[in-house]
Amino acid sequence: MKKAAIIRGDGTGPELVDSMMRVVDAVNPDIEFVSCDAGEEWWKEHGGDSLIPEETWDTLNETDACFKGPTTTPGVVGAPRSVAVSIRQRFDLYANVRPIRTFAGAPAPLGDVDFVAVREATEGMYFGKEIEITDDTFLAIRRITKRACENISRYAFEEAKRRGWDTVVGIHKSNILRMTCGAFMDILRATAEQYDGVELWEYHVDNMAQQLVKNPQLFNHKVLVSTNLFMDIISEECAGLIGSIGLVYSANIGDDYAMFEPAHGSAPKYRGMDKVDPCATILAGAWMLRYLGAADEADAIIRATEQTIAEGTTTYDLGGTASMSQMTDAIVGHLEK
Fold it and tell me: Which of 125, 180, 232, 297 gives 27 a disulfide partner, CB atoms 3.0 to 4.6 angstroms apart?
């Protein structure tokens, strides 16, 4: 039997994970789930140099995948790095993958879209090293390695091939960041030569931000790929194209392990209000089931979520009036039919 670690998280995280597990229980996959701690709330109580306790690392090492509910990262100098970054770096989960697709019944402010954002997830600006040079001068280090560029380039082209799509879009700023973005693009171009039938388009990140507003359908059925911070920002912009980041689910994939999570944060101001959109969390949970071999159960959850959105049972971010629990009830109801 496959095993999955479940981190419930901070803020609205525990409520969202409870919603996800209600939906998962409705399809009853042959998977063992192991609950564990991580996040700012745990750290404030226990302290230390990590947001993740040693017992949780032990659990992660003993499981086949991890689900991470939204966690809060302290924004103070000297605080530990985020839960997500820590797990990505420890397990070399180099590909953060976010499908961006319009859902029937959800807002589509600039028209229907369907593409995938692929983000290098282990280095770049998230390397996390900053230096104080003088009292008024600070430096942040952007770490780019050829190995990480090769991993993410290969993943992007393989993702296009898996989906039967014919284009990878490389997003960069190599006219300014000539060494770091230059290395990324050199390897992306070299990878493109290995994939007949898959074209490489190149966009500067500032132009890409404009084009996603001006002509988003240009990128339908294409894989967008970039370095860590650039794609973090671009994929957040993409969330606006499908009405809410509450619909953006994501996977962090390496060669031997994967972590699944909603793309949004912990929204602590809404904690306990039964308000936030559970869809990204539920869909990320479905993706984890697929990764662990429960494809039929994953498909059933995706269909039930799509039906719920289409019939108008949605939370405030999608223009609806349903609570988190009411939307979860509706998804479970479709599964029980």
Answer: 297
- DSSP-assigned states of every residue in 32-76: EEEEE--SHHHHHHH-SS-SS-HHHHHHHHHSSEEEE-------S
Are the C-beta atoms of 292 and 29 separated by less than 8 Å?
A: yes
CA dist., res. 215 & res. 211, Å (int): 5
Residue 140 phi, psi dihedral angles, 5° rounding: -115, 135
Q: How far, in Å, CA of 172 to CA of 329, rounded? A: 43
Question: Mind listing the pLDDT tens digit for each residue in 90-147?
Answer: 999 999 999 999 999 999 999 999 999 999 999 999 888 999 999 999 999 999 999 9
**Which residues does 189 contact at the CB level (< 8 Å), separation at least 6?**
170, 200
Sketch out the chain's domains with CATH numbers: 1-98+245-337 (3.40.718.10), 109-241 (3.40.718.10)
Token pair of 73, please? 């990262």
